[in-house]
TrEMBL record:
SUPFAM superfamilies: alpha/beta-Hydrolases, Galactose-binding domain-like. It comes from the Bacteria. Residues 516-749 form the Xaa-Pro dipeptidyl-peptidase C-terminal domain. It comes from Undibacterium amnicola. Keywords: Hydrolase. This is CocE/NonD family hydrolase. The lineage of its organism: Bacteria, Pseudomonadati, Pseudomonadota, Betaproteobacteria, Burkholderiales. GO terms for molecular function: hydrolase activity.
Amino acid sequence: MRQIQPSMIMAFIVLIIQALIAGNAWSSETYQKPASLAGAKMEQRADAYHLLQSDLFRQELNDLIKRAKLTVDDASRDDDKIAIASFLGDFQQTHGLIAKQKNPLGYFHYSSHIWLSQATPDRGQYDAKALHEFMTRKLGAFSNEDLYRVSYCLGWSLEMGQDYMLGLFKKLQSNATLNKNDIVKLVTNYQLYKVYERILATGNQILSAENDKRYVIEPNVLIKTKSGVSLSAVVVRPKQIVGKRPAAFQFSIYADEAWHIKTAIHAAAHGYVGVIANTRGKRLSPDEIIPWEKDGEDATQVIDWIIQQTWSDGRVGMYGGSYSGFSQWAAAKYMHPALKTIVPYAAANPLTGLPIENNIFITPNYQWPFHVTNNKTMDHSVYADGKYWDDVFDTLYKSGRAFRDIDKVEGKPNPWFQKWLNHPDYDDYYQQMLPYKNDYKKINIPVLSITGYFDGGQISAIDFLKQHYKYNPQANHTLLIGPYNHGTAQGVPYSHHSNYQLDPVALEKDTEEIALQWFDYVLYNKARPSLLKDKVNYQLMGSNTWQHHPSLQKLNQEGLRFYLNTTKDKDGHYQLSRSKPRTLDFVLQTVDLADRTTTNNEAGMWPLIHKQLPKSNGLVFMTEPLTEAMQLAGSITGHFSIAINKRDVDIGYNFYAISPEGEVVFLNYYIGRASYAHDMSMRKLLTPGKKTQVPIVNARMTAKLLSLGSRLVMVLDVNKNRHAQVNMGTGKDVSDETSADGKEPLEIKWFSDSKLTIPLKPWR
């Protein structure tokens, strides 16, 4: 559940998905579920709320902790350690854990709860007046920046928390027993909710009053554009600064007034006028809700409006993550002269992220159109039950029905998703909404892109960068990337991603703070943000260093070439060989695409660290042990040489590193449709039986220090699972193919002259 910020809903989605699918490395010891949980009805938010209010359930949690002998050391993440200490009532330990954090103010809710618990030891009662006085005194003493940091941790929703707990309760109810990992999730998320339940209302009341003293806050601005559309906006100006100022502008479909105010206040705390506008149809806008299609045009007209205001100095910088990253690129297509810089983080692109990845429609976040179009704000209930959606996608996959039937399987029409299914290639639909080819030549403003190795949408962010440099070699475009997921790429990282503990230097990234420092650098000629020492800035996992390089393209080229050796070893593995084969050979793989009792190319991304290579139906290719410590940094490039008995195939791989001690670390995954590998805008079917080269496009970047004796592993496969369309290879629109089209199993020959460049170089 964690700290849920409505404007970072994608981060919330990612956390839900990860929490529900997480594997674990605990011992096999298990424990009985609390009776109240096992017997509770869990159908709607009110059911979760009822259990959260139960004294009996809390007592059962206490008993469960005692039986499992749970301590803070059983949690890996600092957030979870703090929550466990708080639940146990160990205030000294809670204070100590908070004090060690890089941003202690991010845990102000726990600090306030400690004070309240000590002031009113009876958990069922507390002194509302005393809490009010405490909050007034504490918040009034904070600087503008510290007040914002506190507001960030108060940017929470009890309703969304109840939705999350509903999903978690349902998931745990389906387990026969609980392991320690389950208990940690249950206790920490329960405690986080109960802490906020006690302090959130008072905290936000005092916070609002304090902000009113410091800022001019206009929450209900309605902007009438030249095209006749009305767009809703929040505007915040610092009271203590007079004169005209630049605007820090976000354009978002995620309409949430309270969070927009917080975000705009942060910009105002840095001396900017914060402007957060919503896409058409959202919040106060009376128009039809239209995702993606009109954002460039509309954002440009908001910039027109901004520079006409009395407080504007005529300069605008755009920033923001995920969908707001997309909207910046959409606006950059029009290149308004007042737009001086953009800072897209974890930038989305519908063709290279969601709902399509390299021309393959995928199911994660299928429900997103409901989330953003069901009402004028956001329908958070859509994501409350992760298991429900998993079951939908599983049912579709096992049924063998056409992918286009996905909403019929689910039971609710999804017209937006159906519309996107009609655009499987990079056609005019996408070209009109984003910069395309020579449009990038006009984008001569400084750009800062931020993403993460584990950001599902990383390929979108990096594709924007690659296209920018391809069509504008003189582009001023900087990349910051590290071991972050879609959520933490947009904010402050956690101590862990899955069961991987981040290097201390990786925790130095504070995305929004860096974005505002970038504005200072571009607009006021102040110091460049300290992490940005070159065009490409990446955190090398395992080295506790940030590395810097002048070019992503050149970084990818600084690697070693490998080929597919077709000889098996005693373990059934093949070799990724440094030597080009003297004679051409191949490995034959047969995949029954109509058989939905098995899967191929399931990503082994969670947990990140495994005790052994995850089992799969793919072909395992492994390097020889490294003869020296190496830096792996960049994306795999090259091509696969294949021949198939059909007209198309979706290929993929999972990429791992294995330490000399046998620890397996997941690095990244890839999927791509062979018929679009040469041109995403035009499908070119393969000739059955004919050998062809399929280039790797939009591979994900990673960076890790590899010790002497480590090996790299590529598990090569055909993509066939519930997370995406299944390409039956007939040449028809894949959305219309059914398992009946797969009567003949796919036969794919992986030839030994497949050539891969893995970005490896000696570590110095």
